[in-house]
Structures
1.
Amino acid sequence: MPRLPGSDTVQHSKLGARFGIYVLSTSLLCIPVAGRTATSRCRNRAGVIVAGHLSHEIQLDAVHPAKEWAKATPMTFCSDWQGRNADPQRQTTVRVLWSAQNLYLRFECRYRELYVFDDGDPNGRRDHLWERDVAEAFVQSDPLQPHYYKEFEVAPNGFWIDLDISPAPSRDLKSGLEHSTFLDKRQNRWFAELAIPLKSLTSDFNPGAVWRANFYRVEGREEPRFYSAWRPTHTPQPNFHVPRAFGELRFAPAR
């Protein structure tokens, strides 16, 4: 397992820019979520996630999230890819926002252990990122083409990858995404925010359309690793590439 810094770290990056790493002396204040027991909160059964609307773009900051994230209804999960073995200590909370330019994602991840790559491209891209700890989003703008969708992954230390998935071999999406990550080792949590240009997801965005999506986490050094999913895929072995299991992604009306 690559050694991580002993103190908390935050990383902000824009595709094509080098990472900056800063030591923090304060811990993250999380966006509050309505109180329920940890286990019941992460046993998510909802099949729809709604992206809150933004009238303007926001600055990504995993440490101090923009107040606009309160417009997004949190969706939480901690069960494995079969909908079993709920583990609140590996809970994931996802929030989604949309603007005229971007789809925004925020992940809040509890963890038991960390296992990450210590090398990547200068801009932070890392191939085969799923072989280490990651949070993932699969986004499908056209449900009539179930085998075509986009895959986004981000690691606790800020590495990322974006892929264009189709029946042909997957290829780099080159979406132009921006992101910010924060690792809070004292609280065993890590956080990531992504801004994904809508033009990389669809050529004709219609906020009245219903998209499909799923969200996942992978954690662990060796098998059996913990593969968790918002919408369980129910495959015999861990497999996230099951479009029929995707939930609905809807867009709140512009106001």
Note: Confidence is low (pLDDT under 50) at residues 1-7, 14-29, 32-36.
2.
Amino acid sequence: MLKLRDLVKHHPTGGGEPVRAVDGVSMEVRAGEMVALYGPSGSGKTTLLTLVAALVAPDSGAVLVDGRDISILSDAEAASYRLHELGYIDQAFELLPGGDVIQNAALKLWVTVGVRRGNREVAPMLERLGLGERLCHRADLLSMGERQRVMIARALSTEPKLLLADEPTGNLDTQRSREVLELLREVCRERGTALLLVTHDPQATAYADRVHVLRDGRLAEVDADAGPLTPAVAALAPTLTGAITGTPSAPSAPPR
């Protein structure tokens, strides 16, 4: 479903060495699979998502979605791709000023199927996300966690074949985070959706089929079957990356 091939995106720094945000990344996310991309802030995770969302173009490499390289789409084609084929749970809450919950969640559906049908179709997902009693509440007056769930409903509303999630539980409490991660995993399997989840929360990796560690724009894979990316495993991230880059570093001692 999603294949990245030798993807590179560097950012100039005004005369110095460029920031290697994404530096030769190759990976795959299959239909119905949930893959976690774990790494600290500044490791290149969000940049990689913007490349997959066709919001920016790579310096080199390819982003293949169902065999089509979306990195070379025109602006109009990229907009259509994001509307019809992609769901994107962003960290920014792009809410309609004064709009209620159902209006904000159904925004993409308004374009594809119309207002009334869109509102009707998105309601069950809002129910599953615990917002059934807030459908007519103004979205900009909700808590941060509730707003995040509205954005999740919007991303899932068009039943995309590819879902990108940038810290989707960042504003949720522990219990609600578990519920949302379980829901995302269920939806992936029910619909055959490929999900690329970006997180710096080790516990979120427990829900993934596979886990990659991203550091300084480079990638390594760890064993998701072992459970959450514990502090001991997270401490190995520099070493895993070093194995790829040829510059190994000593891991921190695991907690006792």
Note: The chain is about 35% helix and 25% strand.
3.
Amino acid sequence: MLIGYPLDKEPNLTIRKNDLDLYEAVTTSNGPAMTWSMFCVGHLELGSVDLAAKMFNRQLLQSTQPFQVVAMSSVADTLTRDIRRDVSLMAAEGVE
């Protein structure tokens, strides 16, 4: 996906497409938002506007309110972590 970056050389379009296909196949649905953003950029480089739009919208699923900040973990992961923290704090304070 980022093969061109560390090498400072742009791979040909076949390599770029194969790279995207490989990484998309092994990325979990709750992967980091930056992953989906990079997939979006990669598809734009290939001229695949529909796939780029799909990836752009996918990364927005990990934005949080009220300012639409894109989180590295999914919103569900963040909510679960926050609930656990709140329950722990309530237990420590003796709240039932």
Note: The first strand starts at residue 63 and ends at 64.
